[in-house]
Amino acid sequence: MRIDLHTHSTASDGTNTPAELVRNAAAAGLDVVALTDHDTSRGHAEAVAALPAGLTLVTGAELSCRLDGVGLHMLAYLFDPDEPELLRERELVRDDRVPRAQGMVTKLQDLGVPVTWEQVARIAGEGSVGRPHVAEALVELGVVGSVSDAFTPDWLADGGRAYVGKHELDPFDAIRLVKAAGGVTVFAHPAAVKRGQVVPESAIADLAAAGLDGIETDHMDHEPATRARLRGLAADLGLLATGSSDYHGSRKTCVLGEFTTDPEVYGEITRRATGAFPVPGAGGTTA
Question: pTM for this structure?
Answer without folding.
Answer: 0.89
